[in-house]
Hints:
Structural class: alpha+beta
Distance between the termini: 25 Å
Shape: globular
Strand order of the largest sheet: 1-2
Number of helices: 1
Radius of gyration: 14 Å
Amino acid sequence: xxxxxxxxxxAAFKDDDELSFCGLDFYRLKRRGEDLVQxxxxxxxxxxxxxxxxxxx
Length: 57
């Protein structure tokens, strides 16, 4: 997903609407490379060797 695509999705909502990340706690956005922005959470989130998403609280 690009930043532009995400902005288009958010355009339908009011500025003071609350975002939910389904139990994840937003930490920050961090630039990784020239054209990648990573969304970081307080929890560690990664894909294991079987392709399953793992969340460590």
